[in-house]
Amino acid sequence: MSLAQERSLDATYRRRLTEGVLAFQQCGGGHAVFPPRPVCPTCGSRELAWAESAGDATIYSATTISPRDQDPYTVVILDVAEGFRMMSRLDGPDATSATIGDDVRVEVRAIAGGGDLLPLAALSTGVDA
Ligand SMILES: [Zn+2]
């Protein structure tokens, strides 16, 4: 794979973030591919199409960070409902109480204080199905 291809995939992913969309790829075999790459790591397919995540995810692992001059936040690895795993950041008042297996919602937004739009997680609050 060329560096140009890699940069192009990354540029597409980042452009979708600016539109508020968490994009991932799917191969013809139905495998979810994330982060973006030119070949499906599961089956080797090069026929990858972009798809949009609805943002439903479960915490796979969680580590709380307590910076000296900021509120604590939690770095999480998420199992996203569409079938891929990604790193994210969980903030909000309940972030430090998050545990493995908790349901979260991924939304593309800026961290409090500004900056680029990022896929950030928040705990799903007891909404019954
Ligand atoms: Zn595949």
Give a structural overview.
This protein has 129 residues and is mainly beta. The protein has two domains: 50 residues, no CATH class; 68 residues, OB fold (Dihydrolipoamide Acetyltransferase, E2P), CATH 2.40.50. It is 12% helix and 40% strand. It contains one helix and eight strands, in the order αββββββββ. A five-stranded antiparallel sheet has the order 6-5-4-7-8, with no helix packed on it. Strand 4 and strand 5 form a beta hairpin. The longest helix is centred in the first third of the chain and has 16 residues. It is globular, with a radius of gyration of 16 Å. The termini are far apart. The model has no long low-confidence stretch (mean pLDDT 91). It binds zinc ion. The site of zinc ion has 7 residues, from loops.
